[in-house]
Amino acid sequence: MPWTVSPNDTSVAADPRCAHWCASAVTLARSGAKAPQDSKAGDGKRRFGFGGVALGPSVVGLRLLAVALFISAGVTLSCGGEARPEKKLPLPGEAWRIDGHTAFLIPAAEPPPAGRPKPWVWYAPTLPPYPGEAERWMFDRFTRAGVAIAGIDVGESYGSPSGRAGFSALYAELTNHRGYSSQPVLLGRSRGGLQLINWAADHPAQVAAFAGIYPVCNLASYPGLAKAAPAYGLTLEKLTAGLSLHNPIDRLAPLAAARIPLFAIHGDVDRLVPLEANSGLLRERYTALGGTMKLVVPPGQGHSMWTGFFQSEELVAFVLHHAFPSPTP
After folding, report:
1. Is the same domain home to 39 and 152?
2. Which of 25, 98, 163, 275 is the most exposed place for a label (fewest CB within 10 A)?
3. Has this prediction a pTM greater than 0.85?
């Protein structure tokens, strides 16, 4: 019988006993009231009560008190006693585990019209520091427009098959169980480009568009094949020999065939992720395949926290334009 409580979430399972325990614990934790008092019932047995409702044996009262104490400490619990993962987000949202990976979801400020799937942006990389405060401005623009943001931490997988499997688990959770659109807009910051473009190449029908902030598109450029090989479970020699099977920049044909629009903003003095070997090469190859891509190149900008990367009106307009599914005629 699953149930969860958190300092900001009083949702509980349909079972009224769980509902009472959780609601009582939340009330107790937030109000600073004393622990539930015990009393004797007419049959002489001691019962713990809260809010005028008898909760049963003392173990129930102790359990309630324990839940309240955990809530006071800011810990989110499940019925099985498992703590939800801690994930600092730039806007209010939730974090949970999918197949052992930490996932997050920042909901839209307003739900879509009834019967319409919920639009969302798929952000990568999701790592302990990311997304961070730099993304707050554009995430706020997305959520106010009715678009949620989600992601999953698959570690430094560099777009490998194992990392893409974790991505597929997040996609299945959001689309099959939470009512989100089957075609999210992908938003890759730096090495998030490797993860998202490779996943999109496997699933072009499940993508509305891709946008990137100085996205990595080329394993040979970053992190380099020697560093990427272990993430792919390959030796350097095998990854080098089969690079075209794994490198995002070589896997663009399915996206072009599906007419997936691309966008990137990338500085012209980026030394860590050079423009020419990544977004520049991406546009060159993608347009040669018949695809469309808009590339914005701020002069004199490198791989930095320049606010123009994270407060780009052009990027926000592109994402919002493609985030909302077209109505079915």
Report:
1. no
2. 98
3. no
By the 8 A CB rule, do 218 and 244 touch?
no
Q: Residue range 271-284: average pLDDT?
A: 98
What number of H helices and E strands is found in the chain? Answer: 12, 13
Kindly report, residue by residue over 168-219, the tens digit of the pLDDT.
999 999 999 999 999 999 999 999 999 999 999 999 999 999 999 999 999 9
Distance of alpha carbon 247 from alpha carbon 193, whole angstroms: 11
Is there a single domain that holds both residue 51 and residue 172?
Answer: no
CATH number of the domain at 299, please.
3.40.50.1820
pLDDT at 324 over 80: yes
pLDDT at position 327 = 55
Which three-class secondary structure state does DSSP give residue 105?
strand
Q: Which of 78, 102, 118 is the last residue of a domain?
A: 78
Both 176 and 277 in one domain: the answer is: yes
Query: Cα separation of 132 and 253, whole Å?
Result: 32
Q: Are residues 194 and 295 in the same domain?
A: yes
User: How many domains does the chain contain in total?
Assistant: 2
Q: Are 200 and 255 in contact (CB under 8 A)?
A: yes
Q: Does residue 169 sit in the same domain as residue 29?
A: no
Is 194 domain-assigned?
Answer: yes
Task: Please spell the DSSP secondary structure of 116-177, one letter per residue.
Answer: SPBPEEEEE--BTTBS-GGGHHHHHHHHHTT-EEEEE---S-TT-HHHHHHHHHHHHIIIII
71-108: per-residue pLDDT in tens?
333 334 444 445 788 899 999 999 999 999 999 999 99
Domain range spanning residue 300?
94-323
Q: Please indicate, yes or no, whether residues 265 and 166 belong to a single structural domain of this protein.
A: yes
The neighbour count for residue 54, using CB atoms within 10 Å, is 15
Residues 275, 213 contacting (CB under 8 angstroms) = no
Diameter over CA atoms, the chain: 84
